[in-house]
Amino acid sequence: MAGSPEQMIAAMFEQLAVWSDEPRWAGSGFTRLVVELADLPGHPARVVARRHKALLERQLADLLARAGIADATDAAREIWLLSEGAISSMLVHSDRRYAAAAGRAALTLLRARGLASGPRPRRPAASART
Q: What is the DSSP letter of 129?
């Protein structure tokens, strides 16, 4: 990902919406795995899933830091929460518009921290296929 923090975050959530529109999309396998093994906290598969999710969050923090975000670790965690929530909501509701809503929330978060500026992201038109 390249560009301003705002462009990177917008692209991240746009790609999430595209990914969720694939036939047979089932969300994050790592998230599904952890939910299935919720009663087995020490299970090796949960350890792998936790490492994977932590790596992705660190990569996002690194991207934000390189883009000049001073509190990139906190911002990445908050944005990652929005991403994971969008994935879960898209699975529950079969509605990919949750990716766009999470993207708008992430951009609002950046603006509230004074980390991004510019026009508010536009809302996508309602669609039958979600």
A: -
Structure tokens at 103: 């993207």
CB 106 within 8 A of CB 79: yes
d(CA 100, CA 11): 10
Is the CB of residue 104 less than 8 Å from the CB of residue 123? Answer: yes
Structure tokens at 45: 């598969």
Q: Which residue is associated with the tokens 């595209």?
A: 18
Which of 85, 63, 74 lies closest to 13 in space, CA to CA? 85
CB 9 within 8 A of CB 67: no
Per residue in 4-47, pLDDT tens?
Answer: 888 889 999 999 999 988 888 888 888 888 888 888 888 998 88
The rounded distance, in Å, linking the Cα atoms of 18 and 20 is: 5
For 72-102, write each residue's pLDDT tens digit.
Answer: 999 999 999 999 999 999 989 989 999 999 9
The Cα 86–Cα 84 span in angstroms is 5
